[in-house]
Design goal:
This protein is 63% helix and 0% strand. By secondary structure, it is mostly helical. The termini are far apart. The model has no long low-confidence stretch (mean pLDDT 86).
Length: 227
């Protein structure tokens, strides 16, 4: 007769207690998933699994996935650095905060996508907009031009970040883009072929800053419709 191996029964009371579910914990968990998996991590099922609970329990704290997306975007934007009022000119502060915004989005591809698809609400999102409006107000930009200008600047930066991160995810390198221009039919696309080097030149910060300059000059020259 063989002896059966003994089995140790662990009491439920001896197991580590789960952290109580809350909106903050749900958002924190969702942010981690979005940073590691991209937008696919923003799934109620995945978040619930990470929290060892059921998806239905999450809806006690967030109305729907759209609301959760707004919370997660705002949590991600907590890492954006707002330069102090004594650090350079209004323009340098404006460009520095947009550089920081780009870095945050680039480091977390899922956040970059949320920035384009989610209405930005929350203290961090609103704080960023308020800060940018302050810089444009110091520059003497009219009310409507400032409001529309901030929206345009944020859209530009978000688009740049999403484009770059999306290319990285599918493995599309700059060389691939360059090769496509090199193989163009010069007779069918004479301008593109003639500018094939310029089309992909100065990739990175130099080209990004040039875009900011172009948009800013338009904001500064635009006629305000209300003040």
């Amino acid at each position: 007769m063989t002896n059966k191996p003994s089995r140790t029964v662990i009491s439920r009371r001896a197991r580590p207690a789960k952290e109580p579910l809350s909106k903050e914990l749900i958002v924190e968990t969702a942010l981690v998933l979005v940073k590691s998996e991209g937008s696919t991590g923003l799934s109620m099922r995945k978040i619930a699994k990470a929290l060892d609970t059921g998806p239905s329990s999450l809806y006690v704290y967030v109305t729907n996935q759209q609301e959760l997306s707004a919370y997660v975007l705002d949590a991600g934007l907590a890492e954006v650095v707002l330069p102090t009022s004594d650090s350079g000119t209004w323009q340098s502060r404006l460009f520095d905060v947009l550089d920081s915004y780009l870095t945050v989005l680039f480091d977390a591809p899922g956040i970059a996508e949320l920035a384009l698809t989610t209405i930005p609400v929350g203290h961090n999102s609103l704080g960023l907009t308020e800060y940018m409006l302050q810089q444009l107000q110091e520059a003497g930009v009219g009310a409507t031009s400032a409001a529309w200008g901030v929206d345009l600047l944020l859209l530009y930066v978000s688009s740049v970040a999403f484009e770059q991160t999306a290319r990285n995810q599918v493995g599309t390198t700059l060389q691939t883009v360059k090769d496509s221009y090199q193989s163009l039919d010069a007779k069918r696309y004479p301008l593109l072929f003639g500018l094939r080097e310029e089309m992909t030149s100065a990739e990175g910060k130099e080209r990004f800053r040039w875009g900011l300059e172009v948009i800013l000059q338009g904001i500064l020259q635009g006629k305000p419709s209300s003040n």
